[in-house]
């Protein structure tokens, strides 16, 4: 599975990143829960800026496994 647009596949980086991506996947589950709570709170009080920041942070937590795998595949040269 390659994430690069120039079609360089780095299987060693991908394999080394799998355990860390699994941990990031667990973090993304926490992000989903925070996102749901943040959305409910933003419906109750849409003027609250801290809830919006919390929802944005939760979205980044949900994207964490992809960021981790991209970082690992970029670090391994072959």
From TrEMBL:
Transmembrane ranges, per UniProt, are 12-33, 39-62
Mind listing the UniProt keywords for this protein, alphabetically?
Membrane, Transmembrane, Transmembrane helix
Q: Which InterPro entries match?
A: TAXIMIN_1/2
Mind telling me which PANTHER family this protein's record contains? SIGNALING PEPTIDE TAXIMIN 1, SIGNALING PEPTIDE TAXIMIN 2
Q: What is this protein called?
A: Uncharacterized protein
């Amino acid at each position: 599975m390659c994430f690069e647009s120039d079609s360089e596949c780095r299987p060693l980086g991908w394999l080394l990143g799998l355990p860390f991506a699994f941990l990031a996947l667990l973090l993304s589950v926490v992000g989903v829960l925070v996102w749901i709570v943040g959305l409910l709170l933003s419906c109750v009080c849409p003027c609250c800026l801290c809830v919006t920041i919390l929802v944005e942070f939760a979205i980044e937590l949900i994207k964490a496994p992809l960021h981790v795998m991209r970082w690992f595949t970029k670090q391994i040269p072959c």
